[in-house]
Specification:
The complex is a heterodimer of chains A (392) and B (259). Chain A is α+β, with helices and mostly antiparallel strands. Helices cover 50% and strands 14% of the residues of chain A. Chain A has 3 domains: 7-128, Butyryl-Coa Dehydrogenase, subunit A, domain 1, CATH 1.10.540; 134-233, Butyryl-CoA Dehydrogenase, subunit A, domain 2, CATH 2.40.110; 239-383, Butyryl-CoA Dehydrogenase, subunit A, domain 3, CATH 1.20.140. Chain A has 11 helices and 10 strands. The radius of gyration of chain A is 21 Å and the shape is globular. A 9-stranded mixed β-sheet of chain B has the order 9-8-7-10-6-1-4-5-11, sandwiched between helices. Chain B has a two-stranded antiparallel sheet with strand order 2-3. Chain B starts with a strand and ends with a helix. Classes of the chains: A alpha+beta (392), B alpha/beta (259). Chain A: Keywords: FAD, Flavoprotein, Oxidoreductase. Chain A: Belongs to the acyl-CoA dehydrogenase family. Chain A: Residues 240-381 form the Acyl-CoA dehydrogenase/oxidase C-terminal domain.
Chain lengths: 392, 259
């Protein structure tokens, strides 16, 4: 197993990077942040359509038989998805890739793999083709090691009622995947947000003031919203949610890597250009040693993130991925935050400017750090497999 | 319809470009190679014409071994096959030599329509389309901002200083395009995967019946005598408004042909 990027991964990266360079410059993202607050739509739907449909990134995890690009024989896998996330992190792109093409898709894939469900297959086909966007109605901060109990209930008439907070990607979702509690066991339900004839107000997405402006969270409420059951489970567990959160956490590491790389590259470029005392500020040891340390941290983060992506790719449906994911998440979150902090600091006054994108990266890095399990959750999860139990 | 698109790998304009001091040719290893931007519009136009009229799109690129990256991008965008004209004897060819080599390769491949970008970002002669047409005895329709094909007739809107000309010719023809013509697509993941399986034929000068004494640095008609780094940008002209500021600004723009 090599963790280096393959030729296909580099070409995919080039395509995504070209698109983002054309359509997702930092000034475009800042503009979207401004207008998103007013319009209630933080995402760039046109950019997402080009990414999902034309470049085809939405189907990277979906098997070929369902219309996606994933296959065991040289097709796409979590490694390609990880490269896309690196680029999206590097641009803090306001697109629902993580929420739709990773989290929601993984939940559906688990449901489809377990029971071969018709609903899951149909939804995956639509998601892979970029015809629909989905979101998993679970708090973004939920830990994969202790997924929250479903807060929504399913009535006998096939409608769901309840409220979930802290959801990402709901504003742009055509389908919401909701874990629900049954009298005995749990289920995963699919709620269409805009089918013809839906009772108005059955699904409400209320924006919440969020730290991360490029991927804000929202509160989603269902009031007797018509739903389709995607899969059911007998116990109190929600296996689809657990799997989605765990695999999502593994891939989130690549987004964090992308954030950190942008911060380092941008800061290095800045300190080479900015002069003080008649020399570039980057020539001062106090500055360059900090950046050299950061480079080392990022090298470690890249190894951890690539390892997680490769393990996920090797075990697309099951398998022991916990160690790789927990190592990556325990490490990459802090690296991204540190990189973003250094970026703000070493840019001096300009780093504190609203018009400079540095704050977007710091906020994204901070939100990512507590998303899908905190570094502490992931370290705790490592205790068992690494045979290092916490002191009693 | 058999469409051949000529693409060139050029050093990334975002990086510093250098000439090699020993033979005064472009140092292609010093910068990242990218597809010449205008050639992406040519590939896109070829793909659109193929989608509308059927046929096949062949990519032709002349360049060193690493030009295969450029060829793969064109294939990932959707071209069907590629020909890579690659021979050390071609190194340093000027526009005349290049047009001779490319025209020989085109004769070997066969074509109904040749499309290329109107100029490259490195050499910037903008001459290749005209030279190719002359050598191939085909009509040249340069600087096209719109291409229409009906049967064997090809109609082109050709950008000029005063607007555009409508010109018409019959196939086979050589067309060069400007960036106004379309919006090039991004390679899709499936396209990238499919490109790996598409045939890329490599031709040396003997394979394409190219006479060695007409190409290469030694046989170039033009010669780079000397080169120097561009001088740092001089201060611009400052127009102080004394009531006639607007008129003088307009005069300046007119003298540079902006208005």
């Amino acid at each position: 197993m090599t963790l280096l990027y393959t030729e296909v991964e580099e070409e995919l990266r080039a395509a995504v990077r070209d698109l983002l360079a054309d359509r997702c410059s930092s000034s475009a993202v800042l503009g979207r942040v401004e207008s998103g607050v007013e319009s209630g739509m933080p995402y760039d739907a046109e950019l997402w359509k080009t990414l999902a449909r034309d470049i085809g990134v939405a189907g990277l995890l979906v098997p070929e038989e369902l219309g996606g690009a994933a296959s065991g024989a040289g097709g796409a896998s979590a490694r390609e998805a990880a490269v896309v996330l690196e680029e999206l992190g590097r641009a803090v792109a306001p697109v629902p890739y993580l929420s739709s093409a990773v989290l929601a898709t993984q939940a559906l894939l688990t449901a489809w793999g377990a029971a071969g469900g018709e609903v899951a297959g149909e939804l995956l086909g639509r998601l892979a083709a970029g015809e629909a966007t989905a979101a998993l109605a679970v708090p973004f901060a939920a830990s994969p090691y202790a997924p929250p109990a479903p807060a929504v209930s399913l009535s006998e008439d096939g409608t769901v009622t309840g409220t979930v907070g802290g959801v990402i990607g709901a504003e742009i979702a055509d389908v919401l995947l909701v874990p629900v509690r049954l009298t005995r066991g749990t289920a995963l339900c699919a709620v269409e947000t805009s089918p013809a004839g839906t009772v108005q107000g059955a699904v409400r997405v209320a924006p919440v003031t969020s730290l991360d402006l490029t991927r804000p969270i929202a509160t989603v409420s269902f009031a007797s919203a018509p739903a389709r059951v995607v899969a059911t489970a007998g116990g109190p567990e929600t296996p689809w949610v657990r799997e989605a959160l765990l695999r999502g956490a593994g891939l989130l590491a690549s987004e964090q890597l992308g954030i950190a790389e942008w911060c380092l590259a941008t800061t290095v470029a800045y300190v080479r250009e900015r002069r003080q005392f008649a020399r570039p500020v980057g020539s001062f040891q106090a500055v360059k040693h900090r950046l050299a340390d950061l480079w080392l941290e990022i090298a470690g983060a890249r190894a951890a993130a690539r390892n997680a992506a490769a393990r996920l790719a090797e075990a697309p449906v099951a398998g022991d991925i916990t160690v790789a994911v927990a190592v990556a998440q325990a490490h990459c979150g802090a690296v991204a935050v540190h990189a973003a902090e250094e970026c703000v600091q070493l840019h001096g006054g300009i780093g504190m400017t609203w018009e400079h994108p540095a704050h977007l990266y710091l906020k994204r890095a901070k939100a990512d750090q507590i998303a899908l399990g905190t570094p502490g959750d992931h370290r705790e999860a490592l205790a068992g497999p690494a045979d290092l139990p916490a002191p009693v | 319809m058999n469409i051949v698109v000529c693409v060139k790998q050029v050093p990334d304009t975002a990086t510093e470009r250098k000439l090699r001091s020993e033979d005064k040719t472009l140092d292609r290893d010093a910068a990242d190679g990218v597809v010449n931007e205008l050639d992406e519009y040519a590939v896109e136009e070829a793909l659109r014409l193929k989608e509308a009229h059927g046929g096949e799109v062949t990519v032709l690129s002349m360049g060193p071994a690493k030009a295969t990256e450029t060829i793969r991008k064109a294939l990932a965008m959707g071209a069907d096959k590629a020909v890579h004209l690659h021979d050390d004897a071609l190194h340093g060819s000027d526009a005349l030599g290049t047009s001779y080599a490319v025209s020989q390769a085109l004769k070997k491949i066969g074509f109904d329509l040749v499309i290329l970008g109107s100029e490259s970002t490195d050499a910037r002669t903008g001459m290749l389309a005209a030279m190719l047409a002359e050598r191939l005895g085909a009509p040249q329709l340069t600087l096209a901002s719109k291409v229409e094909i009906e049967g064997t007739a090809i109609r082109v809107e050709r950008i000029t200083d005063y607007g555009y000309d409508k010109v018409e010719a019959s196939l086979p023809a050589v067309v060069s395009v400007v960036e106004k013509i379309n919006e090039p697509r991004y390679p899709s993941f499936k396209g990238i995967m499919a490109a790996k399986k598409k045939p890329v034929e490599t031709l040396g000068i003997a394979d394409a019946d190219i006479a060695a004494d007409q190409v290469g640095l030694a046989n170039s008609w033009s010669e780079v005598v000397d080169f120097a780094a561009a001088p740092p940008r001089a201060a611009g002209t400052v127009i102080k408004d004394e009531g006639d500021g607007g008129a003088r600004a307009a005069e300046f723009l007119a003298s540079k042909k902006f208005i």
